[in-house]
Amino acid sequence: MAREAKLSPAHFSREFRRTFGEPPHRYLLTRRLERAAFLLRNTDRSAAEICMAVGLTSVGSFTTSFGKAFGMSPLAYRAAHPPAARHVHVPMCIAQAYGRPLVGRTPE
Prior knowledge:
With 108 residues, the protein is an all-alpha fold. The protein has a single domain (24-99), classed as Orthogonal Bundle (Arc Repressor Mutant, subunit A). Helix content is 60%, strand content 0%. The chain has 6 helices and no strands. Helix 2 (24-42) crosses helix 5 (74-80).
């Protein structure tokens, strides 16, 4: 990304962090974990399949990172969000805000 922006990696990382509030790696990991949470709620794919589908390569690291972000393992997260929840009409903005991980934030 730094090369495409024609910036040094260090400068790109500093500017990215200043703009988005987190370094590029954490930003990408957070987006991948959000996508994984969506797939856990809405598919019956295994945690390993979801791990690979979102671009991660280690199921162990995925489980650890997911636990830090959402406060529970991927399988516990799936169990806490049963399929019937898909049929309840909730505005997308509320669902997305509720589903965001707590990376860098404390629970309210």
